[in-house]
Amino acid sequence: MKKYILLGAYLLLSAVLVSCDDGPVYEKTGTISEEGRTLKMSGTINGINKWPDSYSIVVAGFSDESEYAVVTKTIPVPATEGEEIKVTMTGISDEVSTVELCAIDKLRRRIISFQSMDDLTTDDDTLRMNTGIVNVSMYSAIQQNVFNKGCIGCHGIATSAAAGLTLLEGNSYQNLVGHSSTVATGLLRVKAGSAEESVLHQILHTTGWKTDHSNMITEPHTLTLIDDWIDNGAQE
């Protein structure tokens, strides 16, 4: 019996030594491949920290059929305002027809687009986007996409602006935030921290004013954007 035990031990030891002679055994690893193209974006992007947590500043890919992003990459807040930011986004599939620097909500729906790249026809697997210097603050988004597009026709030149309210870029903020209303006694045009107590909110949501503004902004998310800006401190 001892002879068989010794023989078994010898064979086991031989097998171990042979396996050691074959070299180290490595854990199997797989190569993870990411389908689609890659975007390398660079630029000086200011005002990211002026948005509440319910929004994100991202570079995102959209298809023609939807306002919801197919792929996104969050833009980090720079350590110092004015510092260049570099971001890489992978997985840009063929259904993506435009790449945008934009603000999205928690559902990844486009809220505001700051810059877009529509020509994605290059055969190169890497797309490059340089934004230059861009202000993506919440107030800048409202100025560019609300006041400039729909309000300055009546609230433009200071000497003839409706209700004495000029909303031209460079003048609008000081004319709104903490400024007494000329059409609602005792109220501020914008009371930082309280949309419901601000005339800007009231005039966009209710009727009965000299000029009806309640149907001037038709997108609910734009009205929500303005209210969120006010409720979160109405920062410039």
From TrEMBL:
Q: Which UniProt keywords apply?
A: Signal
Question: What is this protein called in UniProt?
Answer: Cytochrome c domain-containing protein
Q: Tell me what organism the protein belongs to.
A: Bacteroides faecium
Q: Give the superkingdom in one word.
A: Bacteria
Question: Which N-terminal residues, if any, form the signal peptide?
Answer: 1-20
